[in-house]
Amino acid sequence: MFLGYKLIQHTADVGIVAQGASMGDAFGFAASGLFSLITDTSTLKQDKIISLEFISDSYENLLVKWLNELIYIYLILKYWCLGVLKWR
């Protein structure tokens, strides 16, 4: 098993496979994969921490909510997500 993310071909466009040692790591890698499609993430720096809280009936739906919120935050606030600091 690898840790991180990789981009894969998908019939609709492109897909992201993300795996981590914990669920928080996997969600952080999914976010990194998402933003790697938008920009060169190696040039980004962390200067803000935003607290987000979600409730969902499944991990799959939670991931969709997470990524949708990150896209919204990027479009409105121009913030990038570089990872997950805390997972409950």
Instruction: Sum up the overall morphology in one term.
Output: globular
Report the total helices.
Answer: 2
What is the C-alpha radius of gyration, as a whole number of Å? 13 Å
N-to-C SSE string, H for helix and E for strand: EEHH
Query: Are there runs of 5+ residues with pLDDT below 50, and where?
Result: none
Mean pLDDT: 85
Distance between the termini: 23 Å
Class derived from helix and strand content: alpha+beta
How can the largest sheet be summarized?
Answer: 2 strands, antiparallel
Give the total of beta strands: 2
Q: Walk across the major sheet and give the strand order.
A: 1-2
Helix content: 25-40%
Write the layout of secondary structure elements.
Elements: E1 4-9, E2 14-19, H1 23-36, H2 59-77
Antiparallel strand pairs: 1-2
Would you kindly provide a written description of the structure presented here, covering whatever features stand out?
It contains two helices and two strands. The radius of gyration is 13 Å and the shape is globular. It has helices at residues 23-36, 59-77; strands spanning 4-9, 14-19. The protein is an alpha+beta fold and 88 residues long. The longest helix has 19 residues, at 59-77. The two termini are 23 Å apart. The relative contact order is 0.19. A two-stranded antiparallel sheet has the order 1-2. The protein is 38% helix and 14% strand. A hairpin with a 4-residue loop joins strand 1 and strand 2.
